[in-house]
Specification:
It comes from Salvia splendens. The protein is α+β, with helices and mostly antiparallel strands. The protein is 52% helix and 9% strand. Among the domains are: 133-280, Butyryl-CoA Dehydrogenase, subunit A, domain 2; 290-474 and 490-628, Butyryl-CoA Dehydrogenase, subunit A, domain 3 (Up-down Bundle), CATH 1.20.140. The structure holds ligand LHPKVLDO and flavin-adenine dinucleotide (FAD).
Length: 687
């Protein structure tokens, strides 16, 4: 029946004020209002329809994305949307497009790595989208190892130009050859970008100065054809239907392409008219600054992707009933459920379902808050860099790299778990979960492979441990290393399950585990005469130490959030329970590490599990309200299983009827392939 809210009973159970929680989730009342308005604008505009995506052939899919991006830009200009509103529009349109790379990487690269003069030339063009750019760093043979890139930019003092060249090129006209060492992967490059920030080894006077960024025009502004010396195209279909195939990830070869000298991005270092290489007094690492920016954005996005999957799985788990009986009769599986419920059991009431789902719900909130904090850290480091204070750059790099790795791994795994939590129906495209997984999972690889990034964190940790006792006091997220002597000796004081609700106790447990794992790695490293050899040999342990450090950051930022004034009936109490689920489920999952480092005893680990179960019971009646607090429209969720009213089954049935295979009762191909087969069997049966 239209208009019935099948989840109304669930919503009535909520013990907190959902409207207040919506504001906590959004970050502020203002942000909530903007997001609410823009999400409705997108949801109510048929131009942004997306349910057909998994069915569309690639060319149609891509053209459709071009149409949506052009239409979005028209709205942005006609409605005079602010940057914040435009960014929300991109978010709620929910379709990867070349615009992500233009705004998310090309523009930030221009801002971070160009001189003021260069910015004043390029930024106005990019802001008006009179040029469209991408970030062309990765090559066919080199992604993680940025220092290993092989494209060259050789200065020609005769003409005051750089000659950009993809080496070991055996053919510049086709991709079939084996030894083409081209640029490979950049989004927006394949079919759209007019310009690219290309990373190449700078060569002046025969000397290699390492990797630098250059602005290269790729296509004619008249007819969009590649300029002379440039071969460019799409790299082909990627994982999943729809999903990331809306993006034109590209391949590029540059055959002695000439660009003017002032198209080297010269904030970090310069080449003079005479061909002299000069380094500014800013650190070379700023060449990597765009990656720091995007990693911070990716952390903020992780909570969105995970919360979407969790919202679908939570609503569906409340709708779906399995076992029990219509009247609570004898088929009911266990006495516990028979006592508690009449009728069929909602799968959300199974403790196993809660044990898989609620830690993901808690992670979505945890990632939201750590993402907010990381944005603050990034803003802070940017302000410092502007006045040549580079002191916090290593920490910003470690935090963005580590949290990007931690949150994207957990989110990709979490989306897949949500699919399984929805049983068979989770496997249908109309559940929204297959496409969400396919579109999200490359986040574990792009912007830095997650293991490679954790190894960067481990280097930072080992450096910090080696400096203990040198008088240099660790600060920020690594400040706990300053108390390492205490953390190595201390023992957990938990005696009752409720003691695990004490924030200072929890913080010390995560600090002690992280510190002990880092110190143990450092001790093992010191046994090697060659530190790099030791680092390679111990890299699996180092990655685990890095994860422990990153989890500590997330836990501590969630606990910090709870120290703030959080208005709204019951909101803070619920967030305390959610936070408890986050850290206790981590403690349970990694209890081997907490036990092996001897900070906790097996008895204390068991008490943590008792407390965790108690928190599941606290959160259960609030589960639907907690996911309603994300304030997602049905359009944004793109899932029949997660629809707001919970009216799942009729919608599944209607959607199945609309599948193109059901356009005819007898399928195409019957006459060619089925009828002869069936006839032949009939014939032989008669024999
Ligand atoms: C429709 C509406 C339209 C309107 C739209 C409006 C708005 C939209 C707005 C925005 C869009 C928002 C978001 C978009 C978000 C996402 C975009 C979408 C998808 C993303 C696509 C992904 C793109 C890419 O993948 S780009 C390629 C990324 N590549 C990598 O990440 C490579 C990984 N490798 C590395 O990072 C490095 O090479 C390394 C492994 C870290 C280096 O290792 P190593 O060789 O050991 O180190 P090196 O010698 O190079 O350096 C040593 C030294 O430097 C320090 N270091 C390293 N990296 C950094 C860094 N990034 N920052 C600071 N310091 C760094 C390192 O620690 C060492 O320091 P020390 O010597 O030890 O002190
Ligand atoms: C969807 C998508 C979009 C992308 N968009 C862009 C873009 O816009 N611009 C751009 O320039 N690039 C882009 N990329 C490329 C991306 O940044 C790289 O793929 C990424 O940095 C990983 O590098 P790689 O492919 O070389 O992986 P590899 O480094 O080859 O990784 C292969 C395996 O080796 C392991 N490994 C590698 N090095 C080490 C090490 N030192 N120690 C231990 N293990 C190691 C990794 O963990 C991984 O398991 C994109 C990639 C994807 C998938």
């Amino acid at each position: 029946m239209a208009g019935v809210d099948y989840l109304a009973d669930e919503r009535n159970k909520a013990e907190f004020d959902v409207d207040s929680m919506k504001i906590v989730w959004a970050g502020s009342r203002h942000t909530f209002e903007v997001a609410d308005r823009i999400s409705k604008l997108v949801a109510n505009d048929p131009a942004f329809r997306k349910d057909d995506r998994p069915m569309l052939p690639r060319k149609e899919l891509f053209k459709n994305t071009l149409r949506k991006a052009a239409y979005a830009w028209k709205l942005i200009t006609e409605l005079r949307l602010s940057e914040e509103e435009a960014s929300k529009l991109r978010f709620f349109v929910d379709e990867p497009a070349y615009t992500d790379l233009h705004w998310g990487m090309f523009v930030p690269a221009l801002k971070g790595q160009c001189t003021d003069e260069q910015q004043s030339k390029w930024l106005p063009l990019a802001y008006k989208m009179q040029i469209i750019g991408c970030y062309a760093q990765t090559e066919l043979g080199h992604g993680s190892n940025v220092q290993g890139l092989e494209t060259t930019a050789t200065f020609d003092p005769q003409t005051d130009e750089f000659v950009i060249h993809s080496p070991t090129l055996t053919s510049s006209k086709c991709y079939h050859t084996v030894e083409v060492l081209c640029t490979w992967w950049p989004g927006g490059l394949g079919k759209v970008s007019t310009h690219a920030v290309v990373y190449a080894r700078l060569i002046t006077d025969g000397k290699d100065h390492g990797v630098h960024g250059f602005i290269v025009q790729l296509r004619s502004m008249e007819d969009h054809k590649p300029l002379p010396g440039i071969t460019v195209g799409d790299i082909g279909m990627k994982f999943g239907n729809g999903a990331y195939n809306t993006m034109d990830n590209g391949v590029l070869t540059l055959d002695h392409v000439r660009i003017p000298r002032d198209q080297m991005m010269m904030r970090v270092s310069q080449v003079t008219r005479e061909g002299k290489y000069k380094q500014s007094d800013v650190p070379r690492q700023l060449v990597y600054g765009t990656m720091v920016y995007v990693r911070q954005k990716i952390v903020a996005d992780a909570s969105c992707a995970l919360s979407k999957a969790v919202c679908i799985a939570t609503r569906y788990s409340a709708v779906r009933r399995q076992f029990g009986s219509q009247n609570g009769g004898p088929e009911t599986q266990s006495a516990h459920y028979r006592k508690s419920y009449t009728g069929l059991i909602q799968v959300i009431d199974y403790k196993t379902q809660q044990n898989r789902l609620f830690p993901l719900l808690a992670s979505a909130y945890a990632f939201r808050f750590v993402g907010e904090w990381l944005k603050w850290l990034y803003t802070d480091v940017t302000q410092r860099l502007a006045v040549n204070d580079f002191s916090t750059l290593p920490e910003a790099h470690a935090c963005t790299a580590g949290l990007k790795s931690l949150t994207t791994t957990a989110t990709a795994d979490g989306i897949e778990e949500c699919r399984k939590l929805c049983g068979g129906h989770g496997y249908l495209c109309t559940s929204g979960l297959p496409e969400l997984f396919a579109v999200y999972v490359p986040a574990c690889t792009y912007e830095g492979d997650n293991i490679v990034l954790l190894l960067q964190v481990a280097r930072f940790l080992m450096k910090t441990v080696s400096q203990i006792g040198s008088g240099k006091q660790p600060v920020g997220t690594i400040a706990y290393m300053g108390r390492v002597e205490h953390l190595l000796k201390s023992r957990c004081s938990v005696q009752r399950a409720e003691d695990w609700l004490n924030p200072s106790q929890v913080l010390e447990a995560f600090e002690a585990r992280a510190a002990r794992m880092s110190v143990s790695c450092a001790q093992n490293l010191s046994k090697f005469s060659n530190p790099e050899e030791g680092f390679a040999e111990l890299s699996a342990d180092l990655v685990e130490a890095a994860v422990a450090h990153c989890q500590l950051i997330v836990v501590s930022k969630f606990l910090d959030k709870l120290q703030q004034d959080i208005p709204g009936k019951g909101v803070k109490q619920l967030l305390q329970a959610v936070c408890g689920i986050y850290y206790l489920s981590l403690l349970h999952k990694h209890q081997g590490e907490f036990l092996a480092t001897s900070y906790i005893t097996p008895k204390q680990a068991a008490l943590a599990s008792d407390q965790l179960r108690a928190l599941y019971s606290k959160v259960r009646p609030n589960a639907i309200a907690l996911v309603d607090s994300f304030n997602y429209t049905d359009h944004f969720l793109g899932s029949i299983l997660g629809c707001y009213d919970g009216n799942v089954y009729p919608k599944l049935y209607e959607a199945a009827k609309k599948d193109p295979l059901n356009d005819t009762v007898v399928p195409d191909g019957y006459h060619e392939y089925l009828k002869p087969l069936l006839k032949q069997q009939l014939h032989s049966a008669k024999l």
